[in-house]
Amino acid sequence: MVDPRANYDVIVVGGGNAALCAAISAAEAGARTLILEGAPKAYRGGNSRHTRNFRCMHGEPMAVLTDSYGEQEYFEDLMKVTQGNTDEKLAKLAIRSSQECYAWMVEHGVRFQPSLSGTLSLSRTNAFFMGGGKALVNAYYRTAQNLGVDVLYEAHVTHLEREGDRIVSIDVEHQGQQHCLVSKAVVVASGGFQADVDWLADAWGPAAKNFLIRGTPYNRGVVLKDLIGQELESVGDPTQCHAVAIDGRAPKFDGGIVTRLDCVPFSVVVNKEGLRFYDEGEDVWPKRYAIWGRLVAAQPDQVGYVIIDSKSLELFMPSVFPPIKADTLEELAGKLGLPATRLQQTINEFNNACTEGRFHPTELDGLATQGLMPPKSNWARPIDTPPYYGYTLRTGVTFTYLGLKVDESAQVQGRTGPMKNLWAAGEIMAGSILGQGYLAGFGMTIGTVFGRIAGREAARYANN
Amino acid sequence: MQTIELVNLDAIAEARRQIEICNACRYCESYCAVFPAVHSKRAFSDGDIQQLSNLCHNCRGCYYACQYTAPHEFGLNLPKALAEVRQESWESHARPGAIAKIFHRSGTALSLFVVLAAALLVWLIQVAPKSSGEGFYSLMSHNAMVLLFVPAFTLPILLILLSLRGYWQTIGGEPVRWRHVVGAFGSIAKMKNLSGGHGDGCNFEAEDAFSNSRRRYHQATMYGFLLCFAATSVATLMHYGLEMSAPYGIFSLPKLLGIPGGVLLSIGTLGLASLKLKADRELADARVWGGEMAFVLLLFVVSTSGLALYFLRETRLLNELLSLHLGAVLALFLLMPFSKMVHGFFRLAALIRDEQCKA
């Protein structure tokens, strides 16, 4: 139990990767530190629980990372996905600092492993956490607690009281009781707002009610909303979020990695009317899965249907739910709730547009349809070998991009200048760097880099 | 066509459900041999699940790393699910299975068996022929001991080999090559599957904190047991081959092997028992906690009574200690096919099979 009257130097709001990096850094700088984690212990760690790697710059092969991945290439990759919608200074700071993060993470208990089977394409750019994000979170909580950091779970921060350029107190509800905590410095690292479906619907329209939330149900953006409401500078567009196409049977929240479906490139995807709506073979799946989140969101009822045949069943990573299986397309349509005649017609048209050629599942093989709209540019093989398999696709939101504006010391910006004792790290400020799009593993890089900066700066302020 | 007794399908079905989730995630790939074996397949037969269960060393790294453990609706607890399949695979392949079930699950039954065996020895020592030799052969002749222990050792070993044959058929094992055996013994020698993949060890006794304690205590137990076994074997050879009979001096081979072996076995088993008290029972097969604990303690009794027998051989306690030690050894031998002892044989088979699959 934490004493609400205790004098903390630094209070960290949030309990994921960025919050833990901040708390550890603050404690190592001598600050008496408290973590306020909204989730119960079993669900601690925010979206970090579901992560598996961080994107890491390196000049030569380094531990589990192969080859090299320089600052320029890293930055160009970021420019490609964000289409320039980034803060160059902050982005370069994150990229440059990522290399030294690796050793820091190992020192603080994180263990790495070679890139996982099925993810070979990331072995050069991304360092995988052994056991995944929850193992990382566990290691950081142990490290933090060994450094004397106090942790309060199920601590719901409802309001940060602002007076001019300072935060003077924090309102927190814990086990049905209201507390008002005071500390010299505050770090907010409480994530985005994706679990607040009403807020998503405000930004996206009612379609958002049908979205699935891939990560923690505890990132409801309460602190973000509270601070934006107090005229702190925000960045990013509330309609921007990282959204991917996932198995439609996934749970509403917290389905994580196992709900992804990698079979779209080998399939025909139709909407609930049985009609195709986009080129399934435009590019390799790691470069396209985020686009499909938005494509599916634009379809009636925000749902898509992936149809494959037995030729393709073993070409992609298995997912958590077995596919719907049928001996005929008509039967499959019945099981999926699709109009059978229309589906048959769509597949016939597709099959007739397929051409002869070499099929190669792991590279752009150029095996394209002819005279079909929309086309399928690669991996276009007729769907003709029963049994047939189907999956439903829905939009799965990973995180939102609307956030607080920070500077290079992670200090939160007010309208008339920086807040003296408020820092932000992780998804709550990632919108500064990720205006749109996403680069695998970059969220954890931002959280680690800015979490460490925020913790160090908050402790420095508190110590003075 | 030989009929293979089926392991409880509920346990297998539950493990399969969980394994399929793991196969869609793969975050635990580097922890141990289980995950690469999972990731190399898309569908899992009953035999596959039994094989995976015997590859699992219950280090629990995957449980604490898992984002899908309860209260998450996926409710993963892979160490428990595999422990239950593993337990049932041992019991179902044992002959007779009903006896295995009793001694695996009931620590009381196992303890009573030890007491009965010790009592039997008290009686045997009274009626058995004595030899004129020194030490404990003055209580029971070497030939009498051999007459008792050779069948008490070989018949259970035969039963274990029979159950291993059943297991090997169930998992679809292929002809064994030398390199498979070398690979498997390499894993066992270092207890690689309790290293956590990174060398920091298991998550056994203090939630998600890594520790090599269990690995080290297990090594002490295993190497201690092997040293004791070697000491007894060497002594038998010396007795018959070189006509050198016990008691042996402290610098003789049986003692140089046996005393360190006994000390290691005592320390190892005591350590394992104390870790077992701290570990969360819900991350293993809770039904056999008592039987497992009794088995660890039986090993402890075997080693400490053996050491005591050596150090107190000149005292009036010789008779009682000999009864206790020989009784415990007799119980251990007889219960080999029906107790936790089989885990070593099944793990070896599973690791050999794993080497085959990797090749």
Describe this structure in words.
- The complex is a heterodimer of chains A (464) and B (359).
- Chain A is 27% helix and 22% strand.
- Chain A has helices at 17-28, 71-82, 88-107, 133-146, 197-204, 222-229, 289-297, 329-336, 340-353, 442-463; strands at 8-13, 33-36, 53-55, 112-113, 126-129, 150-152, 155-163, 166-174, 177-181, 183-188, 212-213, 234-235, 241-247, 268-270, 303-309, 324-326, 388-400, 403-404, 411-414, 417-424.
- In chain A, helix 1 packs parallel to helix 4.
- In chain A, 55% of the residues are buried.
- Chain B is mainly α and 359 residues long.
- In chain B, helix 8 packs across helix 14 and helix 9 crosses helix 14 (342-358).
- The interface between A and B is medium-sized, with 32 and 32 residues.
Residues in helix, % of chain A: 25-40%
The geometry of chain A reads as elongated
The percent of residues in helical segments of chain B reads: 55-70%
Q: Return the domain count of chain A.
A: 2
Order of strands across the main sheet of chain A? 6-2-1-10-20-19
**Arithmetic mean pLDDT of chain B:** 93
**Morphology of chain B:** elongated
Cα end-to-end separation of chain A? 28 Å
Largest interface: pair, residues per side: A-B, 32 and 32 residues
In DSSP terms (H or I, runs of 4 or more residues), the helix count of chain B works out at 14
Q: Which structural class do the helices and strands of chain B define?
A: mainly alpha
Q: Any idea of the CATH topology of the largest domain in chain A?
A: FAD/NAD(P)-binding domain
Cα-atom radius of gyration of chain B: 22 Å
Number of strands of chain B: 0
Provide keyphrases for this structure.
heterodimer; A: alpha/beta; FAD/NAD(P)-binding domain; 2 domains; 6-stranded mixed β-sheet; elongated; B: 359 residues; mainly alpha
